[in-house]
Every structure is written in C-alpha cells, then in structure tokens.
Amino acid sequence: MKQSPVNIRNKRASFDYELLDTFTAGIVLTGTEIKSIRLGKGSLVDTFCVFEKDELWVRNMYIAEYFYGTYNNHSARRDRKLLLNRTELRKLMRLVKETGFTIIPTRLFVNDKGLAKLNIAVAKGKKQYDKRQALKEKEDKRTMDRMFKR
Length: 150
What we know:
Shape: globular
Number of strands: 9
Oligomer: single chain
Strand order of the largest sheet: 1-8-9-2-7-5-4
C-alpha cells in the first residue's frame, strides 16, 4: 500500500482534549473540494462535529476554493455530511449525550482508492492543569532523548 501525500492534522486536538475513542468516516464532497484536498489545501482548526436529524455533520472545516474552479466552485467553510454505519452513529450519539463529551476531527486524508476520509474522536476537554502537565511530560521526554543521543 502506498501512503497518500495528503495528511492534514488537527494538532491542537490532542493538546486541548483527551481523546477517548476514534472512528474513520467518509465525507460527502463536491468535485472541486476533493481536488483541493488532493492538493493539501485544507485545515481542521476549530472544527467540530454535530448531530442533525440522526446524521453526523462536520462544521467549520476549511477547504480552500479550487484555484482552477469555475462559477460552481464550493464555499470554503460549508457544513459537510459524514458517512458512518448505523451502529457507529448510535454509539457516537450515546456518548455525546453524556455531559462533557464532544466529537472532533483529528486527521483528514485520502485513502488508496482516492476517497477522502476523516478520522474523528470522541473527546473530553482538558483542564488548564492537565495541559501544563502534558507540556511538562513532553519537555521531559525531549530532554531524555537529547541526553541519550550524546
């Protein structure tokens, strides 16, 4: 299997949230959107997922307008429907109804068949002291790596 060059990540997700369970979902896109994604022109900053009428939608995901697009080019931050099977949707709906849990996208990629996929995670927000602890652990790991490389 060859690795796709498109790998758009939400770097703030693991810092701001404690990721509990992950899923891979398909996305309903237009022609110019998939062309922009294949060029790597997307962002998952401030992106979140919501349920509307038993369907999961991703909101605020940025996909740049296609440079060679015509009059029917897409809008950059429109809502996009996510494709999951019914059991996964029920599980997500059950988890989100509990207080403090949310669904956030963590990675956007193109699979071997050329389809755009979105990794989503059920997450719980971290407190400020949790974030400081994560930064301290990261810094400690970095110093240990430096010491062993010498």
